[in-house]
């Protein structure tokens, strides 16, 4: 699809440049009164040659990647140039008789003179065409990157929106409220504690976080609120250990809700039963935070947004360009994210 | 009225049981199940119950898996925090759907619905039985008569 547009453009320019060269040959003839009895035919010849050469180059451009798609870009380009020049020489030598006809009095015919003329003409013509084509290709690539940029911007906005939806998912909210109601009936103090965790979680969720980054300490607190709530819900079926050094918590920053969403993902995708508890481990190693759990996948996932992890990867790409490392073996699943610098969260944007 | 509760949150299960007992002291909570596996085992062994209260999302899957793996001829009242499985519930013996957090009124309404169904069905089976005996009697009489003759 993309190539189609480029091809069209190349063809259009090819037409244009052929007409221009033909016209300039005519003008040249008229101004300098060069002795030629068939200036129109000569101009036509120049134009047609240019056009055919243009077509040949477009064909080469199209064919090389099709024949050898694995070839490195640089090699492809060299091959393209070489093929272009070879075919240009062929074209000019095969159309030489026409030139003889159009310019009969260009001096006595000698092989050396003809060869040098053909070589010179084909080199100049082909170089012009290659320059033109490269210019058009460059333009197209630039348009492509511009488009990609605006797409990225849109994606970042979308992921920010998605983030909100994900955090205060109706499932979570109604489950929490239901739990709260039951707790108030059985254990008022537990209900109170639960409510205060819920409130602080909601407050963090609704906070205006334009940068999308929060201090690690805040994120950890959020996770603790979330985990306490889930712990009350799942009791012995969930075991979660968080061990992140104090000084890292003070210095570091992470995308808002990143660790929380990883914990949530683990709960969402794995079996959480007292018979086989889900064990989540959150720890720090080599400037990264790792969220790890024992792998016991659920057959059916409720409310699969399918976007949680992808969203996080996307956010990391926009924020810092760092990779999110996802590892899975028979028994464990782990996601590791880079700890960002604290300053980022305060001064970004 | 023998009731089984399927619910992975212990606290919610207790609350539900308490609510039911409060509303219908004659009800009897036979068992509280918390996972799909446990429930399948329980129902495979043949349980004599009248009504099931079931959460939809359990720790190890959806409760619909239970009903698809074991044939259960008991009406189910589903309770869930978020309503997106209504259609599935219909296919799994669902007679009502309670949204959490539930209150006494919604639980009472669901149980009343069950009772109304049961009464209606009992009436029907009763009339069938009466009709059945009515047809049966003369035959039996005839049989006896013929025995008499012999």
Describe this structure in words.
The complex is a heterodimer of chains A (349) and B (150). Chain A is α+β, with helices and mostly antiparallel strands. Helix content of chain A is 68%, strand content 12%. Chain A has helices at 2-32, 39-67, 73-94, 96-102, 111-167, 170-186, 188-206, 216-234, 246-251, 258-269, 308-319, 342-347; strands at residues 213-215, 238-243, 252-255, 278-285, 288-294, 325-328, 332-338, 340-341. In chain A, strands 2-4-5-7-6 form a 5-stranded mixed sheet, with helices on one face. In chain A, a hairpin with a 2-residue loop joins β4 (278-285) and β5. The longest helix of chain A is centred in the middle third of the chain and has 57 residues, at 111-167. Chain A is rod-shaped. Chain A starts with a helix and ends with a helix. In chain B, α1 (10-23) links the parallel β1 (2-6) and β2. In chain B, 54% of the residues lie in helices and 21% in strands. Chain B has helices spanning 10-23, 36-44, 64-69, 86-91, 104-149; strands at residues 2-6, 28-33, 51-55, 57-58, 61-62, 76-80, 94-99. Chain B is globular, with a radius of gyration of 20 Å. Classes of the chains: A alpha+beta (349), B alpha/beta (150).
């Amino acid at each position: 699809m993309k190539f189609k547009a480029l091809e069209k453009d190349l063809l259009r320019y090819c037409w244009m440049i052929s007409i221009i060269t033909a016209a300039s040959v005519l003008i040249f003839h008229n101004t300098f009164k060069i002795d030629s009895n068939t200036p129109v035919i000569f101009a036509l010849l120049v134009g047609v040659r240019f056009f055919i050469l243009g077509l040949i180059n477009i064909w080469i451009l199209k064919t090389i990647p099709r024949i050898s798609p694995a070839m490195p870009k640089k090699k492809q380009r060299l091959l393209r140039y070489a093929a272009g020049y070879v075919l240009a020489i062929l074209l000019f030598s095969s159309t030489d008789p026409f030139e003889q006809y159009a310019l009969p009095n260009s001096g006595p015919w000698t092989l050396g003179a003809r060869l040098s003329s053909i070589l010179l003409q084909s080199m100049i013509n082909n170089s012009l065409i290659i320059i033109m084509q490269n210019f058009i290709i460059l333009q197209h690539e630039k348009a492509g990157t511009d488009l990609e940029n605006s797409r990225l911007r849109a994606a970042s906005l979308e992921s920010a929106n998605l983030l909100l939806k994900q955090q205060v998912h109706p499932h979570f909210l109604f489950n929490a409220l239901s739990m709260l109601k039951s707790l108030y009936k059985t254990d008022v103090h537990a209900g109170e504690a639960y409510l205060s965790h819920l409130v602080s979680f909601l407050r963090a969720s609704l906070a205006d976080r334009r940068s999308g980054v929060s201090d690690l300490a805040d994120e950890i607190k959020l996770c603790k609120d979330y985990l306490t709530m889930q712990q009350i819900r799942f009791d012995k079926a969930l075991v979660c250990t968080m061990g992140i050094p104090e000084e890292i918590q003070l210095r570091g920053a992470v995308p808002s809700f990143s660790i929380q969403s990883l914990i949530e993902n683990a709960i969402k995708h794995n079996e959480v039963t007292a018979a086989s508890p889900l064990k989540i481990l959150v720890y720090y190693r080599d400037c990264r935070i790792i969220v790890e759990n024992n792998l016991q996948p659920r057959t059916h996932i409720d409310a699969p947004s399918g976007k949680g992890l992808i969203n996080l990867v996307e956010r990391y790409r926009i924020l810092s360009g760092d990779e999110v490392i996802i590892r899975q073996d028979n028994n464990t699943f782990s996601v590791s994210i880079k700890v960002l610098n604290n300053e980022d969260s305060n001064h970004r944007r | 009225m023998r009731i089984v509760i399927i619910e992975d949150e212990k606290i919610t299960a207790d609350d539900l049981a308490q609510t039911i007992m409060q509303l219908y002291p004659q009800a009897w909570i036979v068992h509280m199940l918390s996972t799909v596996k446990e429930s399948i085992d329980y129902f495979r062994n043949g349980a004599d119950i009248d009504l099931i209260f079931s959460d939809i999302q359990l720790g190890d899957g959806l409760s619909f898996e239970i009903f698809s793996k074991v044939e259960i001829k008991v009406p189910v009242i589903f309770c869930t925090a978020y309503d997106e499985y209504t259609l599935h519930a219909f296919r799994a013996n669902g007679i009502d759907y309670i949204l959490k957090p539930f209150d006494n009124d919604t639980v009472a309404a669901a149980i009343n619905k069950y009772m109304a169904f049961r009464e209606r069905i009992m009436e029907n089976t009763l009339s069938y039985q009466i009709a059945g005996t009515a047809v049966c009697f003369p035959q039996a009489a005839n049989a006896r008569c013929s025995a008499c003759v012999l």
